[in-house]
Amino acid sequence: QVQLVESGGGLVQPGGSLRLSCAASRSIFSIYAMGWYRQAPGKQRELVATITSGGSTNYADSVKGRFTISRDNAKNTVYLQMNSLKPEDTAVYYCNAGTWGQGTQVTVSS
User: Fold this and answer.
1) Closest CA to 4 of 26, 20, 19
2) pLDDT tens digit string along 10-20?
3) pLDDT at 17
4) Best CA proximity match to 27, nearest among 68, 78, 63
5) Burial category of 21 from C-beta neighbours within 10 Å (exposed 0-12, middle 13-18, buried 19 and up)
6) What mean pLDDT is reported for the chain?
7) How far, in Å, are 20, 32, 36, 55, 56 from residue 104 at the CA level?
8) Nearest C-alpha neighbor of 92 from the set 28, 48, 60
9) Per-residue pLDDT at 27 exceeds 90
10) Burial, 53: exposed, middle or buried (Cβ in 10 Å; 0-12, 13-18, 19+)?
11) What three-state secondary structure class fits 71?
12) DSSP single-letter state for residue 100
């Protein structure tokens, strides 16, 4: 069972950028799909973006054009580049590869 560790969260002003990383405990080469999800206070966890082993990506409508998911199989890491951040992007962001990481907090506020 792969273990996941997210990092890169923090406090950023509206319009700013952050890059989240999800480091896996073993090779992700054979993991078909990996994804980022987020959960805001009082809300259900929701899909942000997914990426397959072939590089196909899928995004929630709310982040299309602003967020980019990528994976580096050599580093066993999945990334989420977040640009033009909005206050409504504030949430705990989780990585998923069949298991969940512990999450990393992203706060967008002036």
Assistant:
1) 26
2) 999 999 999 99
3) 98
4) 78
5) middle
6) 95
7) 8, 23, 11, 24, 24
8) 48
9) no
10) middle
11) strand
12) B
